[in-house]
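One-letter codes give the sequence; the fold follows as tokens. Both lines appear below.
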Amino acid sequence: MRPAATKREGGREQRRGSHTAARIAFWDRFARESAGWRGLRGYYRRRLAELYRFLVPEGMRVLELGCAQGDLLAQLRPSTGVGVDFSPEMIRRARERHPALEFVLADAHDFRLQGTFDFVIASDLVNDLWDVQAFLENLRPHCHPGTRILMNAHSRLWELPRRMAESLGLVTRQLQQNWLTVEDLSNLLQLSGFETIRTSQEILWPVRTPLIDTICNRYLVKLWPFRHLGITNFVVARPEATPREDCLVSVVVAARNEAGNIPAIFDRVPEMGLGTELIFVEGHSIDDTWGAIGREMEVRKRPRTQRFQQTGKGKGDAVRLGFQEASGELFMILDADLTVPPEDLPRFYEAWRSGKGEFINGVRLVYPMEEGAMRFFNLLGNKFFSVAFTWLLSQSIKDTLCGTKVLSRSDYSLIAANRAYFGDFDPFGDFDLIFGAARYNRRFVDLPVRYGERVYGETNIQRWRHGLLLLRMVLFAMRRIKFV
């Protein structure tokens, strides 16, 4: 290296060292002078904890960078919890307050730990970093393909109000900050090998004020134009897509009064990956669907084929039974009416195997449909609900009721283990999966399909009654997913 370059590099490291030393001293002093978070910051921190608890299920492996006294990490109840901070005083207090967790004294730019984590959290950290890109690049060895990066950072719109509050002594005066926009953070994530899944603005009213704080921070901040005024920006990201290994695929077919379609299902469902397991779940048919499945199994001798009869009601119950009995790593749902061609299933498999998506959802509303495939009011309803649920979930989902959906066994297990959060009133089985995948920030991919007309039997969808049920689900999802 030339002397001038060496000098410049040395100057850069000197500036970084001064930056870090000043912040260590600041946070050490802050820890000694504040007995916990008080005043405005106390309510703000409690609200942040509520939001992170919604995003992170209990029992996960969680790493928090800039963990301070470890209170947020402890509230997430991880199976393994590791906190990293460069303030010796913060780490000392964290170890005293939460002895069951592990705390490491290190700089977030260059720490090294063993193993990977399910969630990596950086709460109000990137505003204080010397080099955000270097910090993000340092996270990669600690992530597996399913890791979620959760971070929040102060909104740039609040820079001036923050300085005014500091000058009035309402909040602690901070050192110079990085005031990054959502676009800045998404760009830095992309440069560092991550993909942004969704963003949101949070906390409109930072003061504990009964009723007012609830209205502002649960509702108004989620609506235009108030959402632009949120104090902090949340970003959820994942490692950039990498191909997965081939696996055994389980295709679950819920079949009620579909006897005439059973032979075509055997003919048309293709082999995928390391093989295709075909699971029929028959649901109280008044035709000979159960017998038709049995006869085809006997004649075809297709390997890895099973049939079950459900004791409950509805497609959702049938799908859950099929997934319970499945042995594959990848789960697929195929409607027995064959209005979505089984020949399209390999496209769903490749979308998942490529790593581009984690929840692959069929879309019937892109290509023209066969005449008679969907009634006019059903089409209008599907378009309305696609807009409503895209807004609710903060990810694009253009067709909520297409029966063809794909997700991994591990993601389904996570959703099923936490199903009680959403109740059990979904007879379709679609929203049970959609809500769960959205809550745990799985990457949605819409996959267009050609939707055909049913050639045997009649639809089980009751337009008006089920439409009202969908409206009820929208209201339910608003309370459970959007306005939390």
Q: What stands out?
A: The two ends are 54 Å apart (CA to CA). The chain has two domains: 3-239, 249-482.
